[in-house]
Specification:
single chain, about 170 residues, 14 strands, about 5% helix, globular
Length: about 170
Amino acid sequence: YAVCRVSPFRRPQYRPMITDTIANAHRYTALHPDFSDAIKLLQTLDFANLPDGQVACENPNIRLFIGSEAMRNREAAKPEAHRNHIDIQVPLSGTEAYGWIDRGRLQNGLGYNEQKDIEFFDCEPTTWLDIHVGEFALFFPSDGHAPLVGSEPFIRKAVFKIRTLETRASS
């Protein structure tokens, strides 16, 4: 699994994405001060009975969105990356494929949207993986990722947006 090395003199060095089962999510709480709260929500919320939209979180460093999204094929999926947030993505209704590429290999940026903390890239992921119901994918700012790939027309999913160490609000 990935490791986060933090030095008091340098920015945190996040390692590539993590994929695992929701039952094992507690293994990653030490990687970030807000992961414990996010994982508690991940393991205790009844997602099936929550409406689509943003779910209120007590922790100001965590935003949680639930929604049904249109799926696409691999050819249509272009990587995205974030600067200020870590994503925990959780398929709720089926299997979702993700493309992955190291941020240092992303090419042809299409412009960073500061308000949404996202930039899309016109290049191909280097790796593909499937995440099933009961599993999650955790993407750090060093991870370019192309979500929403699959054969079904739509998928219902949860996305946690967790502020990076540099941008998190004080507790």
